[in-house]
Amino acid sequence: MKTKLIFLSLLFLSFLNIKAQCTPEITSPRLGTMFPDKVVFCNTETETLSTTQTYGSYQWYKQEWDWQTPNTNPWVAIPGATSQTLTINGTDDMLYYFKVEVTQADCTAESTPILADGYAYGLPFMMVDLQPGTFQEIAPGEYNVCEGASVQFNDGFPELYGTHTWFSCLPGSNPPSSSDPCIIPGETGDSYTATTSGTFGFYACTEYCPDQCEMLSEFAFTKLNFGNWDFCGTLGTGETKPKENNLSVYPNPASQVIYIGKESDKKYTEVSIIDMSGKLIQQKKDHRFSEAIDVSSLVPGTYIIVSKSENGKVFKNKFIKK
């Protein structure tokens, strides 16, 4: 009886071992480095996928990524991919799911899919932080800025990009020459503060893949013209500040509409609403003081209103959208 129990126990353990070996799991050097179920690798590199155990047979499959859930794209068997390992690359396999089907004795099973992810390499963009009241947008991406003020430029993906090269004019080539006269010496961080005129932008390399670099699009470069413009005032210290020209804004805070102006001005040739980053959000031409301005679509926060009267006066006000 004792012998029979030992035999049955060994048989049971053997059965469990077979079942345990028929649960394939994919592994690779970069799997989980940035995301638990994703392989992130550089465009010019390859990555080897493998199973954590050895099986009798293998068939690897791939499925194109889709934004919707469930993914309606079909799983396709990869021709010739019938070994324990599969080599993928950043040029052909980015944004594809991969899985492997294995057999062991009379057992057949599939692994959980993993994704070759490309989202870690979003194209660079630049955020421009202008001081309220010290600038005037004269064209898309071009600003007149008061002398003595400053403008901060920030990489919109600081967690993605590492070493930066900042420019004060459009570089002559992409990638830029190390001797390009537009390079601002010593500026390699995620941000740069400008206090002089120029056309500013950057070239940056991803931190994860130091050899994978991107140039900010030419249209995304920002031009600054520093000077003592009519809308600038001066402090005794020589620093600049906006003229203290204010109008009545009511209600303030506001949720739906606001009214701005005074009866003596009758009409304002232009009223601009600007967010705290300096971006023009809304603009109205030929505004009369008695007309409501619809602000219901604005995101809650603080805004600057710049109003120009018919006689050339410029007024600056803050209001809160709730």
From TrEMBL:
Gene3D superfamilies: 2.60.40.2700. One of its GO terms (biological process) is chlorophyll biosynthetic process. InterPro entries: CHLI-like, Secre_tail. Residues 249-320 form the Secretion system C-terminal sorting domain. It holds the Pfam family Por_Secre_tail. The keyword Signal applies. Keywords: Signal. Residues 1-20 form the signal peptide. The keyword Signal applies. It comes from the Bacteria. PANTHER family: MAGNESIUM-CHELATASE SUBUNIT CHLI, MAGNESIUM-CHELATASE SUBUNIT CHLI-2, CHLOROPLASTIC. This is Por secretion system C-terminal sorting domain-containing protein. The lineage of its organism: Bacteria, Pseudomonadati, Bacteroidota, Flavobacteriia, Flavobacteriales.
